[in-house]
Amino acid sequence: MEPSKCPYPLDPTGSELHAEAAGLSARGPATRVVLPGEVEAWLVTDPEVLRSLFADPRVSKDPHRHWPGYRDLPADWPLHTWVSMRNMFNSHGAEHRRLRALIAPAFTTRRIRGLGPHIERITDRLLDEVASARPRVAVDLRARFANPLPVAVISSLLGITDRDSLDEMRRLVELFFSTTATPEQVVAGMETLYRLFGEHVASCRRNPGDDLTSDLLAMQDEDGSRLSDGELTDTLMLMFSAGHETTVNLLGHAIAELLTEPRHLAAIRAGELSWDAVIEETLRWQPPLANLPLRFAIEYIELPGGGAIRAGEPIVAGLLAANRHPAHRADGDLFDPARADTAHLSFGHGVHFCVGSQLARLEARIALSALFDRFPRLTAAFGELRQRPSFISNGHVDLFAIPVPEGI
Predict the structure, then answer these.
(1) Model confidence at 225, in pLDDT bands (50, 70, 90)?
(2) H or E stretch including 42?
(3) What is the DSSP letter of 134?
(4) What GO CC terms are in its UniProt record (predicted)?
């Protein structure tokens, strides 16, 4: 990065995510950056400042009410979908509480635990397919395992059964997280995604099933008002995209590190380390989302060390920078699942804390344990891993390994 350039234009390719995060951290707790379309924002890198802003009622996620620049955005602004959808992700105050209350019952601890056997069956089926590959031939575990697992789980939860639609949804969500796609690609992709989810809602309305989409169609909030059609579609799109992108990246980073540093895997097998510890440290060390747009200051907010975010200015959460910030964790770049403090902000903080965090952790625990039990001699077949073209999503393009079953 160019250390003297301010505001700093974020690299849309994400090719140097970690170096960029470190450089931005060195500028102070928050620094001015430029997003695609020449939109300026504050990127917050200090974990304590970020945690404070996450919990501050003077910070909103509703661009319609609290971002004056929103009305001037062109329709093809590459990040438009990140702020335009009407769901709990882009809402504030009472409106956020209303929308979140409709979703929260599907993610209680009891209901998530009840999904365990279903996730295990999906995991076993995918590992059977991996095992069917030719012996000693490298398999892309991202494409064959880490990606289809959470997609199968969230699609089952939402009642999406059409295979062709599901494959297209998955492809378009990857486009949604890309920050190198052209405006034309983004607009066309989102039009198709809205059409597909609209068709899914219509199908569930005609033939309700035992799934969250059907539940939401029937559910009413305390005032007796239903979700609008737009809110319902945007909510389903949020759950589908967030419900698998973060878990794909979490699995990919954990698998890659365990293959690169097998001593951690040996510690797990010796009972010296838990899968939960590996998962939490992976979330800290490689947050699935490197930078999360956008929040907006409702009023003037002073920053520690000088400077201030003025009312109406947008804010980006620098999760990768915050989780590794050298002022708060001297060895933050080191993956150490045995460390006492694996605290992180990868699932957020405050009222917008990720409602699906328990599900992501459960999927990771089941998937990682089953993968390395099934293939105890799994061997890395990758060199330098390729970063997905995004400054938002922190994941790999592919992840090749050789699955050697026991006895071969």
Answers:
(1) low
(2) strand 39-44
(3) P
(4) cytoplasm
Alpha carbon of 70 to those of 50, 54, 188, 255, 313: distances in Å?
23, 21, 21, 40, 10
Closest by Cα among 241, 263, 134, 248 to 194:
241
**Threshold 0.90, pTM exceeds:** yes
Cβ neighbours of 184 (radius 10 Å): 9
Task: Say how far apart CA 212 and CA 103 lie, in whole Å.
Answer: 9
Which residue segments constitute the domains of the chain, with CATH numbers given?
A: 8-402 (1.10.630.10)
Element (H, E) at 232: helix 229-260
Longest dimension (CA), the chain: 65
Q: At what angle do helices 148-158 and 163-177 cross, to 10 degrees?
A: 120
State how far the Cα of 99 lies from the Cα of 112, in Å rounded to an integer.
Answer: 20
Question: Do residues 33 and 43 lie in contact, with contact meaning Cβ atoms separated by under 8 Å?
Answer: yes
Cis peptide preceding 9, ω within 30 of 0: no
Mean pLDDT of the chain: 92
Burial status of residue 65 (CB atoms within 10 A of its CB: 0-12, 13-18, 19 or more): middle
Q: Provide the β-strand partners of residue 296.
A: 60, 314
The average pLDDT across 118-122 equals: 97
- Identity at 344, one-letter amino acid code: H
